[in-house]
Known about the structure:
By secondary structure, this protein is of the alpha+beta class. The chain is about 60% helix and about 5% strand. It contains 34 helices and nine strands. The strands form three sheets. It has a four-stranded antiparallel β-sheet with strand order 2-7-5-6. A hairpin with a 6-residue loop joins strand 5 and strand 6 (about 140).
Amino acid sequence: xxxxxxxxxxxxxxxxxxxxxxTGCATFQQGEATAVSKRxxxxxxxxxxxxxxxxxxxxxxxxxxxxxxxxxxxxxGTKREVIEVQVQxxxxxxxxxxxxxxxxxxVKPGGNVDLTSNGKVKVGDRIVGTSAAFGSATWPSLSLERxxxxxxxxxxxxxxxxxxxxxxxxxxxxxxxxxxxxxAKSAIVLSDSTKSDLEVQVxxxxxxxxxxxxxxxxxxxxxxxLLQRSAELLKKYTKEKDRAISVNNLYGRLKRAGVPxxxxxxxxFMIAYINTKAPEKAISIFQEIGSPNTECYTxxxxxxxxxxRLDDVRATKSRMERNRVPLSVITYNxxxxxxxxxxxxxxxxNLFREISARHLVPDAGSWNNRMNxxxxxxxxxxxxxxxxxxxxxxxxxxxxxxxxxxxxxxxACVGCxxxxxxxxxxAEMVDGGVQPDTFIYNKVMEGYADHLKYESALTLLEKMHxxxxxxxxxxxxxxxxxxxxxxGHEEIAHSLIDSMKSRGFKxxxxxxxxxxxAYAKRGNIVSSFRVVQEMQxxxxxxxxxxxxxxxxxxxxxxxxxxxxxxxxxxxxxxMKPDVVSYTTLIRAYGKRGDTEMALRAFNAMKKERxxxxxxxxxxxxELAMRGGQTQLALEALREMNDTPGVTLNRRTYELLCNSxxxxxxxxxxxxxxxxxxxxxxxxxMYGNGQLYCELLSACSLAxxxxxxxxxxxxxxxxxxxxxxxxQALARKAEERAAVISxxxxxxxxxx
Length: 751
């Protein structure tokens, strides 16, 4: 790109330019530049333009230097000749535009022209034609811009130069010595590589800017180029998360050099700091802006949002209104995002209405932030219904949903277990021309894993492989493996790990643990230990989770002694047992019938201030009931009720309603169950349907009509809370109890 300026009144209006088309060699020395040519004094070039950053080479910062004026060509009658030369890019020459002609002002020693043209290209030659941008045709050299454009589009290729030579080369063109010195001073040559030269280009352009300013020369063009390249470099840093130091260094260099920054550059610096995880720096930069515009304020809001400083977000909006800085839809969306992030539905709804009140039109981002606020604020079915209502309103307003819209919808569906709705969302997404990405597919995969739909997970995995637009990643495989493992298809899960490795993904430790737990659940000790070995081969040392899963495998295979030995090994490796480890250890001692050691483990757990869970208490109750220690079971139940955050589950009632240790004494069983009910009432808890049905059945077996009547009365007074799941069983138990009661009554009347 060229920059131009008008000459001051009184100066000659003709503007002539020079471009460096150089290689990665050292910069021109003053002597070399002076030797470019020493004749034709009287030529005048109003300004020299040294281009930087074009793909066919790398150039100095933009300089402006006055040269003598005069005739371009020699005496009349000078013989001319045209030569064609093929040279590889970058060329390594300096081109000058003088009176409408393009001339070779210098040949770089060691450049491609110097090395390959065998002296055919000389200082003073006129470039009358170059290779066209495409094909083998030749374009006439009507302007320097056209020459540069042709060279730019043929980057890394061979170019044909048509050269017109009139008499001796030294009769054609020569700058003044002092002009050549200016060229030598400012011709800072950059690297030939174009992949990541922005940093080098900015550094050298900055050096040119400083030198030109120090020499009292105009640096308008250099400044323009410097700011353009700095903007491109900042955009590059924005895409790289760990470049905060680089952004900081660039900002420091520009400020120390006295480079005047405009709002656009300030805003780019703020965005770069925000995206490189340094929002505090963005806030400090904002303080240096003289008159920040809407975009700068919007970036300030983003920085405060990143730091979760909602009060400052509010203050920034008020400051914009006070300073009469207009709020754009993007500004509103940024503020909405800050409130939505914290689930502040009230402020989000107020701001959303304010957008329309200010005669702005909410876009997809506005609607998405509204949906996200309700997604954060609600749970379960209420969340799904609210999100879907907003989505319907969005479509009625003819606002096209985007990928983020569908991400919220799918997440809400998966969270409620509505996998069919989630699949419908994916279909609607594709029909609307929005391609699902890997993240959205992974959300659906999570739902499949949570609900044991391993076949659907495998189908989706295959679809992602076949589609190509949203390929599976390591997380996709991890969720598919979890789905298969949880559904009891550990062999399929194991084969998926091999497939995962063959595609270049490294299974995480969590993936191995999921597979290990699947084998452990089935009591498959051999496969469990094999998975642990594979984990070690993959570089994952066993941890507490791994050892606990191994203990679980041993317990499920009824090998409590092996489980205890695994625990001992865990302690030897200086691993700190967690609640799962202690719970599994209690179960292991229970398998061995060692009540004393189980209670020691339970007490050691409490001594380490590890809070027992319902599973821990269930392990104690199972141990007690298996050994016929009913008082221990009642004590465990009582402590369980007194432990904060622990609530009985169906497994608890299932363990308590165990008649196996009362086979010869049904009346004792009735008495025990009534004691269980009494413990529950002490803690102001209800008996569930399982306990109710078991009590009536036990009374029937013991022919105890009195207790049976008491239990029926308890239900009428609300002592029992019967769920829908247990209603049918409760009716059958009541029918049997009624039959027993009538039989007992008849028997008594007969007696």
